[in-house]
């Protein structure tokens, strides 16, 4: 059955895709062909268009109905743990699970954008090639500015791979979530060049400099929406699958009364902390997340603080807008800055997704994709 959009022909040049939310309400909800006559003459049905708007025209959009068929992916932030998104996408492709759209935050925007641009192989090759030593070639340190890293070398690598690909030219709808630093607004980047949108989404405050994009100073979207389920819900997707990279740690973020703290243990660890030399390196490449007495340093404290904040935000956002399916790779041994552990992260994402798909198939959940 054909579907149509009712639009004002004066603004039809602005229409990017079905059900796009445009200024001045130039697009109505979708109508079936049999409802066209009623829609034309019913001011209430087309209330999103001014009743005195001239030259109303029906525009056929055969892709509109199919835009909601499949799984909408909300790929969460998690810095180096985000390589596991590659494994998730590999497993979905292997199982022939259709993807209707992708909303990504931070590293989720990197992987999701490269996937829809047909560059997942190149991204995976790059991720697997990273070691503790050679990652330094992609880091251009800067002093006296708004971040430790200028980000120019990584930007050049992204630009080389993605070129002038635009978001609206991708095979499916894509949203990169960022944060406007001056206002705290959550910004959904849905149009324009793909590479700058991705850079804005992963610009971790204090580490990377903010990205000026479309007249706004943007930083990491994980500050406001670490797992962007709400972005998928806004487009009325049938099934929303969230990939949550928050590390599963028993009793994390629980309340501890001061009377329960071991004073001897506290003194011992405070001494160890003070003995750690101050480091302005943005990443502690020699760190291991399983080390009990991990040397934090300045940036270690920054990263762990960001991790705590993100954990709290994820809990709050997903409680208010839960996904239909959650994939949570077991990334306990992968730290936020363990970029050199891409092989392990990808395998963990792949295995967890395969396991989840088996359960969903047994429950008959995947039949809804038809």
Rounded mean pLDDT score? 75
Q: Which descriptor suits the 3D outline?
A: globular
Question: Helix fraction?
Answer: 25-40%
Q: What is the distance, rounded to the nearest whole angstrom, between the alpha carbons of the first and last residues?
A: 16 Å
| Helix-strand topology string | EEHEEHEHHEHEEHEEEHEHHEH
Give me the number of helical elements: 10
What's the total number of strands? 13
Low-confidence residue ranges = 1-65, 275-293
Strand content: 15-25%
Structure characterization notes:
The chain is α/β, with parallel strands linked by helices. The chain contains 10 helices and 13 strands. The strands form 3 sheets. Strands 4, 5, 7, 8, 10, 11, 12 and 13 form an 8-stranded mixed sheet that branches. Strand 4 (71-75), helix 2 and strand 5 (99-105) form a beta-alpha-beta unit. The longest helix is centred in the C-terminal third of the chain and has 24 residues, at 297-320. The chain is globular and about 55 Å long. The relative contact order is 0.15. The model is unreliable at 1-65 and 275-293 (pLDDT under 50).
